[in-house]
Amino acid sequence: MPQDSEFAVTAHDSEAEITLGLLTAVHENSAVTQRSVAGQLNIALGLTNAYLKRCIDKGLIKVKQVPRNRYAYYLTPKGFTEKSRLTAKYLVTSLHFFRRARADCEAAIEQCVRLKWRNVALYGVSELGEIATLVARDENIELVGFVDPLSNQTQFAGLPVVQAISKLAAFDGIVLTDMTSPQANYTALCNELGANKVIALRLLRVTSVPEKNRRGGRG
Fold first, then answer.
1. Is residue 170 a part of any domain in this protein?
2. CB of 197 within 8 A of CB of 209?
3. Which of 149, 176, 196, 219 has the most CB atoms at less than 10 Å from its CB?
């Protein structure tokens, strides 16, 4: 899980943010320790233990003992669903959403430039997608449109919207801007296109796919 100060939990942050931080840490590393999570979230070890027990009791996390008296933690299907829900809630309610979103979009577009992507698609009609279109105007990149299976719109932020990748004009890579189910859609895109063709904004907190999915993709 990112350890940047912008993700650190303070005394004014909500219970939902702490829970999201814990679920994200477990998702990224099943061998994570309570002490390391406490350090990442900047909260007391005892509080981390309390939240972990609460997540286990709610069926969000399962625990398994491994050799040398250590424990491994895993998200349950219910935990994955709760992580996605809390991520979306956190994104839309954050007072710093636009500032952080713009910075992330700028970083993503700069990465597109470094990769020499000239035609770029966006996945997910959302505020993030709209901000990405604003940022891309300042770069030598053409946005070919949005892909969003759940959207009934035909246009968004001045770009066409289609419900399937196959209906979109040719593109070099795709930027994930979906805020509803970012992890599931990121994994699906990587499986379909290859992870080297997909960029996810950092604040979406998605977990990388296995190395075997980092090749291939649409040319």
1. yes
2. no
3. 176
Kindly state whether residue 218 falls inside one of the protein's structural domains.
Answer: no
Question: CB neighbours (10 Å) of residue 142?
Answer: 13
Residues near 62 by Cβ (< 8 Å), separated by ≥ 6?
56, 73, 74, 76
Asked if 60 and 16 count as a contact pair (C-beta separation under 8 A), the reply is no
Number of domains in the chain: 2
∠55-57-63 over CA atoms, to 5°? 70
Structural domain ending residue among the three candidates 62, 93, 124: 93
Spatial separation of the C-alpha atoms in residues 181 and 183, rounded to whole Å: 6
Distances (CA, A) of 46 to 34, 88, 177, 205: 9, 27, 36, 25
What Cα–Cα distance (Å) separates residue 130 from each residue in 27, 113, 178, 217?
Answer: 29, 19, 11, 25
Structure tokens belonging to residue 94: 């954050």
Same domain as 106, residue 84: no
Residue with tokens 């190395």, as numbered in its chain: 211
- Phi, psi torsion values for 64, nearest 5 degrees: -135, 135
Residues with Cβ within 8 Å of 136's Cβ and at least 6 positions away in sequence, in order, are 109, 120, 143
Q: Are residues 66 and 136 in the same domain?
A: no
With a cut of 50, list the residues of the chain below it in pLDDT: 1-13, 213-219
Q: What per-residue confidence (pLDDT) applies to 93?
A: 67
- pLDDT for 132: 95
